[in-house]
Protein: Asp23/Gls24 family envelope stress response protein
Amino acid sequence: MTGAGGPGAVAISDRAFTKIATEVAAEDDRIAERPRVEASVSGGVAAVRYRLSIRYPAPVRQVTAEVRHHVRQRVRELTGIDVESVDIDVVGLVPTEEAP
Structure:
């Protein structure tokens, strides 16, 4: 379980944290499929690794930078946990007309 300690603190399981991180990345409509996510949390900070497929012709560098920023902000907002590391592996480009 993770989360800041102290009275009234809420603990978040690693599994729940990973699900939250998955949903946050999936909020970007330029992501073509459900992201695969690995996350680890220790002492109130997290590291997240994504494997993403991006809708082509979206600019990969811009999409990954914006996803990193969004994940850091939104996950902190939802969980109170700082995401110090967001690694992204782009594993596919899916033409917009073929994206699910």
Remarks:
- The chain has one domain: 14-98.
